[in-house]
Amino acid sequence: MRTVRTTLVAVTAVVLSAALAAPAFAAPRGHGDHEATREAIEAAVKDGVPGVTVTADDWSATAGVGNLRTGAPRSADDRYRIGSITKTFVATVLLQLEAEGRLSLDDTVEKWLPGVVRGNGHDGSEVTLRQLLNHTSGIYNYTEDKDFGRTYFLADGFFEHRYDTRSPRDLVAVAMGHAPEFAPGTSWKYSNTNYIVAGMVIEKVTGSPYGDEIRRRVIEPLGLHATSVPGTRVTVPRPSSRAYSKLAETTTGPTYDVTKLNPSLAGAAGGMISDSKDLNRFYTALLKGRLLPPEQLKEMKTTVATGGPAGYGLGLSGVGLSCGVRVWGHDGGIHGSQSVALTTGDGRHSLAFNFNGDWSGDAVAVVEAEFCGE
Predict the structure, then answer these.
(1) In the record, which residues are listed under signal peptide (predicted)?
(2) 17, 60, 84, 350: which is the annotated catalytic residue?
């Protein structure tokens, strides 16, 4: 999984998906007593992750520390930045708006945001909302911009700019300074810009910021008390652990506390905060049809090819595991935080976990351990 050290924030579930996807050659073994999962999170700590918190259904465990200075342990109730897992929440809101007849996923971006996606070959009149959600738009990924990377992902730039506020239009403008990756609908490439634009569409359609709509439509109905859309708030609510990064292109060198930052740099592409229990509750409700009508849930789970054996739907990745189990969800990386949330298609078995470091640890091993007992 690519993380902040590769100059990407709020990064893709698909890297994880491709790593996990494998031919189904054995019957599912189930999770049993979760002993394999416990061993996998302890192995992640040995690999260099400061600490891990994990919840699978009604079982929780932790390993390592939440604070390198004091040695305080991680908590099963830790709240953390969830990075690109935010994308599933955003996609859910857009699909709800479609179900209400307030928009169509085949609407163009230009219809709702005239002139926003334009420049260097970008043309919002050729990009649909569906192409935003499944990353087939071709819109350049603003977090791959070199100046943006130096500003936010390397130590000198981060500590100078960590509290800056970046507006969605500002982030889209960074992307418009580059040529598109490909013509809309002709290929696939993950782009955080897609979801910045999607958040702007939500606001244009509803008259409310995307975060308000997520709160009203998802967080409050499901009682997700640990989940929030922080906007520009730089702190993580307690209980929470510290978040650590190397802020470098390598996995060596000093370790920095990066807990405080202005999440507007990720916005609707990856700015949310949650905990493992809430993430499991969210994906269980989503996959059981409590948030979307059948037609919209089917759309969400209709995947496109990503160049590997896994597929990407509308803010949702479908992952085939080595034991034949197929799970749905997303992962997310943002400074000092790597998170994964996956649930079986029937919503009966869920897993969510977080590493509070962004340079090491085998997330794939934790997933395989929980769902396959390996």
Answers:
(1) 1-26
(2) 84
What domain range is 96 assigned to?
4-102+209-372
CA distance 173 to 170: 5
Query: CB-based contacts of 34: which residues, under 8 Å, 6+ apart?
Result: 56, 59, 61, 370
Per-residue pLDDT tens digits for 183-206: 999 999 999 999 999 999 999 999
Is 84 in the active site?
A: yes
DSSP symbols for 93-159: HHHHHHHTTS--TTSBHHHHSTTTSEETTEEGGG-BHHHHHTT-S----GGG-HHHHHHHTSHHHHH
Residues 37 and 58: their CA atoms lie apart, in Å, by 14
Question: How many folded domains does the chain comprise?
Answer: 1
Output the CA torsion sign for 293, 303, 90, 106: negative
CATH number at residue 263: 3.40.710.10
pTM to 2 decimal places: 0.94
The number of beta carbons lying within 10 Å of the beta carbon of residue 348 is 11
CA 38 to CA 21: how far, in whole Å?
22
